[in-house]
């Protein structure tokens, strides 16, 4: 056991940065956490790019916004300020971060008002249902970002960490949702608050996870320099506050995760029932083209199942009633909206000589011409 303990101590000592390396890293992090024209410019650019990428449903554009966004820099400044007990750095990081968040939120909100024919895209929807996995992603990205800022040899991980943590896109979704709540799109008022809550929870969870992970990495690298008991108390209080915020966020994220798992199960069940109906009740060549399972509407007391089927044979009304009852056994009260597109199916078997032989077309009559 003594040998094992010595190995652990040697390994930890090997992670410590020298005083010169710590000073250089602290100066770099403090400089990046400072409010500057460049910081504000990149906040504006990343917010514009992220908002347009969300509205146009373009994943590459959104990834570009993640790389442009400098929001991780003030977060790392806050974390280092906690570890070093540097209240000046801590306050500077908080001010820079708050202003960046406010600008990103405002740009997305204004864009949602100005852009006509506004639609909710899949990229927007994908950032309104955070789960516990996002918290772990944020912690891993925060650890990578802190290590990249502290050790120049691994500075290349910073763009990857910025992409993984994804702060700007969910912030812009929060701004878009806020505009929807104020009436930017009347037909979406019912779901606007849920979008606002989910997206806000996502970027807040990411911020908390980055902060706690970065604090742990900075401590591991030897940045913590405590000389008396009073500093120990202040350090523990700040770390406890960061850890408590992360723990507090676990509960809604777990609830979102449970809802996501439940919805995936329901969608799988609905897809299987609709596919079986198309093949068994209609025709073996019938296909389920698309379907959508709506959320429960407390005002109507039902949820909607909307599907489109292509089939050579059309269903009778009794078939639709039976399908609705079958879905209700698994999903509860529903309203079924089914569209069946008639199609023609042709089958021609291969015959010997069929490749070289081509049937002649019947000549058109004068009337047909």
Entry summary:
The protein has 369 residues and is mainly alpha-helical. 66% of the residues lie in helices and 7% in strands. It has helices at residues 2-15, 19-32, 37-55, 59-68, 72-84, 87-114, 122-125, 132-150, 158-165, 168-181, 189-220, 229-282, 317-331, and strands at 287-293, 303-311, 334-342.
Class from helix and strand fractions? mainly alpha
Q: Please state the oligomeric state of the protein chains shown.
A: single chain
Strand order of the largest sheet: 1-2-3
Q: What portion of the residues fall into strands of 2 or more residues?
A: 5-15%
Give the H and E element order: HHHHHHHHHHHHEEHE
CATH architecture of the largest domain: Up-down Bundle
Tally of distinct domains: 2
Radius of gyration: 29 Å
Task: Name some characteristics of this structure.
369 residues; mainly alpha; Glycerol uptake facilitator protein; Alpha-Beta Plaits; 3-stranded mixed beta sheet; 13 helices; 7% strand
């Amino acid at each position: 056991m003594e040998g094992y303990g010595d190995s652990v101590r040697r390994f930890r000592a090997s992670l410590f940065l020298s005083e010169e390396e710590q000073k250089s890293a602290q100066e770099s992090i403090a400089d990046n956490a400072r409010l500057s024209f460049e910081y504000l410019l990149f906040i504006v650019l990343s917010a514009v790019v992220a908002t347009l990428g969300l509205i146009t449903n373009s994943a590459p554009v959104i990834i570009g916004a993640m790389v442009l966004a400098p929001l991780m820099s003030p977060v790392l400044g806050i974390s280092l300020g906690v570890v070093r007990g540097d209240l000046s750095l801590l306050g500077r990081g908080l001010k820079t971060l708050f202003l960046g968040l406010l600008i990103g939120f405002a740009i997305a909100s204004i864009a949602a008002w100005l852009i006509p024919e506004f639609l909710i895209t899949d990229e927007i929807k994908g950032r309104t249902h955070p789960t516990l996995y996002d918290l772990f992603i944020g912690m891993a990205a925060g650890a990578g970002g802190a290590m990249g800022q502290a050790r120049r040899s691994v500075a290349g991980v910073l763009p990857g960490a910025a992409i993984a943590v994804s702060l700007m896109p969910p912030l812009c979704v929060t701004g878009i949702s806020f505009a929807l709540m104020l009436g930017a799109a009347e037909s979406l008022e019912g779901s606007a608050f849920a979008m606002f809550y989910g997206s806000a929870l996502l970027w807040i969870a990411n911020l908390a996870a980055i902060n706690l992970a970065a604090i742990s990495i900075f401590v591991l690298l030897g940045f913590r320099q405590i000389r008396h008991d009073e500093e120990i108390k202040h350090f523990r209080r700040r770390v406890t506050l960061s850890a408590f915020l992360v723990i507090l966020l676990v509960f809604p994220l777990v609830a979102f995760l449970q809802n996501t798992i439940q919805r995936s199960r329901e969608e799988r069940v609905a897809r299987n029932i609709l596919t079986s109906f198309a093949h068994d009740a209609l025709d073996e060549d019938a296909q389920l083209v698309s379907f959508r399972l709506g959320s429960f509407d407390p005002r109507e007391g039902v949820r909607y199942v909307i599907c489109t089927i292509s089939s050579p044979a059309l269903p009778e009304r009794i078939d639709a009633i039976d399908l609705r009852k079958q879905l209700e056994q698994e999903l509860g009260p529903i309203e079924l909206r089914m569209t069946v597109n008639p199609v023609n199916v042709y089958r021609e078997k291969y015959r010997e000589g069929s490749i070289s032989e081509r049937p002649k077309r019947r000549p058109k009559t004068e009337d047909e011409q």
